[in-house]
Amino acid sequence: MPTLHRLGSVSVRMYADDYDPPAFHIVAPDFQVTVRISDLTVFAGYATLSQLAEALAWAKDPSGMARPEMGGAQRTGLTMPKKVLPRIAAVSAGKELLTLNIRWSSGEESRVEVSGLIETFRVYEPLRRSPELFRQVRLGEYGTDIVWTDEIDMAAETLWRLAQEQSGATMSPDAFRHWRERKAYTLDTAARALGVSRRMVAYYEQGAKPIPRVVALAVRALELA
After folding, report:
1. Peptide bond into 21 cis (omega under 30)
2. What is the dihedral of CA 49, 55, 57, 59, to 10 degrees?
3. Distance CA 54, CA 193 (A)
4. CA end-to-end span of the chain
5. Residue 122: phi, psi to the nearest 5?
6. Best CATH choice for the domain 88-165 from the list 3.10.100.10, 3.30.2020.10, 3.30.70.100, 3.30.2010.10
7. Nearest-CA neighbor of 82 among 176, 207, 216, 187?
8. Where in the chain is the domain with CATH 1.10.260.40?
9. How far apart are CA 142 and CA 30, in angstroms?
10. Which site among 30, 76, 218, 224 is 20 to 30 Å from 150 CA-CA?
11. Which residues of the chain are in CATH 3.30.2020.10 domains?
């Protein structure tokens, strides 16, 4: 999807492949965050209040009548996870159908199979019909996404999640946290539902402990309940 709004070097974006909760992204050369639409809470990434103030003011009132007031923003008690979201340094089409070779800004490399996304979302229909178009993939602005045309793109955050899942990780910490948020579970509620301790749930979300396959399967079962 195209950029929704631009404020100098800062852009507000949405992607067709974004997963729950419904969110938009605030992206700049030196920061990026993911913001939940329902309450404008930052739930992934990190930036200072001053970096986000103008974009959040626009999101609250796209008419432009609102003006960012840092004192007011500080009083809201906005908190953010101090986590840097992944960025892509290079991308190319893989030899296998609907796969991507990705080099991350950290230097790590991944081979990511994206057929599930491409077969699910209507926006990707041109890629289903044209292998030649798929091979034209290129790096997006600031490395926060990849693009094929002005209307077809994928978020780096989604590709990172897929890379982690496909590399053998049963579930990423982000996916686990997003599941808990979708279910509106507290740490205690999630712990009871999964039969683990509250501390272990916190460890899973922080990435301090790997998520066992049995827990990932339980999460998926609860998602369908």
Report:
1. yes
2. -130
3. 40
4. 31
5. -60, -30
6. 3.30.2020.10
7. 207
8. 173-224
9. 9
10. 30
11. 88-165
Tens digit of pLDDT per residue, the chain (225 long)?
Answer: 568 999 999 999 998 877 667 889 999 999 999 888 888 888 788 888 889 999 999 998 877 654 445 444 443 445 555 567 889 999 999 999 999 999 999 898 999 999 988 998 899 999 999 999 999 999 999 999 999 998 999 999 889 878 877 876 668 788 898 899 988 999 999 999 999 999 999 988 887 777 887 888 788 788 776
Q: Which two tokens stand for residue 94?
A: 């893989």
SS3 labels along the chain: CCCCEEECCEEEECCCCCCCCCEEEEEECCEEEEEECCCCEEEEEECCHHHHHHHHHHHHCCCCCCCCCHHHHHHCCCCCCCCCCCCEEEEEECCCCCEEEEEECCCCEEEEECHHHHHHCHHHHHHHHCHHHHCCCEECHHHCEEEEECCEEEEHHHHHHHHHHHCCCCCCHHHHHHHHHHCCCCHHHHHHHHCCCHHHHHHHHHCCCCCCHHHHHHHHHHHHC
Which residue is associated with the tokens 């070097």?
9
Tokens standing for 137? 């993939």
